[in-house]
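Task card 7
Instruction: Convert sequence to structure tokens.
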Amino acid sequence: MRGFLALVTCVAILPLSLSGQPTGTVEGTVSDSTGAPVVGAELSIDGSILSASSDERGKFRFTGVPTGAVTLRARRLGFE
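Output:
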């Protein structure tokens, strides 16, 4: 099994959510140990219902992320 990294490239504050709490956007790229993009990685943010998949360039984007520290998880069959 090959390893991969989820590299977060940008975090930006967005307007308040419907609940009145500030939210943000998390964007990034999932790549393997050689730097090649990982297509179809499943990403999630612990403690939320937010999920995304990496595209053909390994890129992903979450919107409506609560501000503050979060744990981002990435998984893809065939990688560890």
